[in-house]
Amino acid sequence: MTNVAVVGVGLTKFGELWEQSLRDIAVKAALAALADAKVNNDIVQSLYVGNMSAGRFIGQEHLGALIGDSLGIPNVPAVRCEAACASGSVALRSAYLDIKSGNSDAALVVGVEKMTDLQTDEVVMTLAAAGDQEWEADIGLTFAGLYALMARAHMHKFGTTREQLALVSVNNHSNGKNNPHAQFNMEVSLEDVLNSSLVADPLRLLDCSPITDGAAAVLLVSESLARRFEQPIWILASEQANDAVALHDRKSIVEMLSAKMAAKKAYEKSGLGPNKIDVTEVHDCFSINEIISLEALGFAELGRGGKFVESGAITLTGELPTNTTGGLKANGHPVGATGVRQVCDITKQLRGDSINQINGAKIGINLNVGGSGATAVVNILSNELVV
Amino acid sequence: MTNVAVVGVGLTKFGELWEQSLRDIAVKAALAALADAKVNNDIVQSLYVGNMSAGRFIGQEHLGALIGDSLGIPNVPAVRCEAACASGSVALRSAYLDIKSGNSDAALVVGVEKMTDLQTDEVVMTLAAAGDQEWEADIGLTFAGLYALMARAHMHKFGTTREQLALVSVNNHSNGKNNPHAQFNMEVSLEDVLNSSLVADPLRLLDCSPITDGAAAVLLVSESLARRFEQPIWILASEQANDAVALHDRKSIVEMLSAKMAAKKAYEKSGLGPNKIDVTEVHDCFSINEIISLEALGFAELGRGGKFVESGAITLTGELPTNTTGGLKANGHPVGATGVRQVCDITKQLRGDSINQINGAKIGINLNVGGSGATAVVNILSNELVV
Known about the structure:
The structure is a homodimer.
Chain A lengths: L3 E8 L10 H16 L8 E5 L3 H4 L5 H8 L7 E5 L4 H14 L5 E8 L6 H9 L14 H16 L3 H15 L13 H6 L2 E3 L2 E2 L9 E9 H4 L6 E10 L14 H14 L8 E3 L5 H10 L8 H6 L16 H5 L3 H17 L11 E8 L4 E8 L5
Parallel strand pairs in A: 2-3, 2-4, 9-10
Antiparallel strand pairs in A: 1-7, 1-8, 4-7, 5-6, 8-11, 10-11
Helix pairs in contact in A: 4-14, 7-11
């Protein structure tokens, strides 16, 4: 099977984009990815769109066809893929498998979500549809509530502290302060986080990623086509694992077994281990999830994620620079776009043209999570095909 | 790349299934497909769910994980695929490409839609999200309206008659009368159709497929695995083409260019032509679309589809038995399930265990359409790998 490379990445500004429609931002990100790859839209043989809930957010389904049409490639086969907040990643992985299958040599992936057209309470209920509607959402369990349960259990079992959670937000906001695409460019202090409004105990406002509009796109190509591009970034592994949707059906709520399984498969596929990773993007929808994710990816032992954060390891000058552009916390979290945005940012780090560039970064990993961990996708990327 | 075969099919009863939830019927169809293949759920390595709009119909997204979980395979990678009324087909095609890529040897496809929990006007608006929300739905153009425009143009340009449209419904209801899975088992006469209530001129109630709950599932396997099964049915081609979402952006509204392109690719891939097809399933969401589809698949020349129907060619004893189990008209049209249901029914015809069995049927084709033709998927199946 052919290898697959990322040869173009594109992002819109993330934020409250009231003056732009979903199709506006999707096309903007797609065109940016094509421009980044220095190609026209006629290269695209397949289109995959990651989107969680445009049907509810803006009353539009059938986004594959809509975005292909708006992009001037109406006849290209297009599919919208959904797995809640991992929708972008399952779209990307579908494109990756499409190229591996020999069906296409070039596949465009667009992750997009337009969330701010609804009132906040309606957004919260729409997002709750990523959990188990009948057994979680209907009894009032929102996503802040679900992750708060995980946080409290992690604190109870492992002694993870409120301050360690807050340091996740401090790091990610610090990394996002010079990111022109990020929703928020302000830094936050430990005290800011600890004194912000309580959302779902122990999680406070500054532990939570925001509600965001935004789009991200990547152009994937086969190995034979990749040779024509200046600086292809290779996908050494793209692996997914799932788990029960409802938190109460999981074997454990202090770790994320789906992410652990996806990471294990990705390390096996690539022949690499956590010690080979130079830069990482993890799913900090809530601060606790960055800690749980760092453990799932094998960077810290189970229960030691908080201490790992506290040690400064995740900062730009630490041993494992994490969420170097601001994470979901500062970038914002347009749910269908996030997994694709992570791959855009890892790609730029590996090419050497990122903000907050990590010198000599060669191998990167990202983890994108759907729901409270029912879906997890892990990609390992490298600037060389043979590592 | 490996070849891919269908080795199990499963259907629920289609209809108003108020006493069953989406997950109930999805699991029921999936278990039926596994039982049909005489295997357990542990064979499944990938899960693809076709669903258009559960977010709006029942307030639940993340259906891949939910259905995997409910089926007892919570860790299997699962993706929900959407392309409006072709959602089932893009899920099936994604599973096909997944196996071709070498990622899986066995992939389960579940198409499902639970539509009747909403009021009819809300269903109509939810379905309108398959069209261009900003340019069609917002000005009141429903799907009956869109297909009525196509019907009127076809009648005006080619002399297609009101009676020819009605004969589509007469044929499909006649075929569905002994189908235990169909929503409707009643036959309708030409007069019944012509005298039914006007919905969108020239389309009447009995020209329209109904609002339906239902699920369909198929188990796909690689060639090496298929050899272990008694009667694999081979997918010789699974091809998709798209077109502009809004009807007014198409080059023509009297033909469906997406379907024509998908069919052309499928014939090329399989090395077969329309003259080799023994049995067909087409997308009769409205009677006009069966006529347009028969033309797109090359069974009748452009503009001659009405006469082809009138000739009796599509009946069970005609030259091209079409929608032999009742089509969307009698089966009902749970939108995310329909494309998968078509492949279930073609598979049974090619195995020789269908209702209304066409003796000696060896090669079948199906066409599933999303929206008013923005997405079209064509599969060619055969009971032999080398034809």
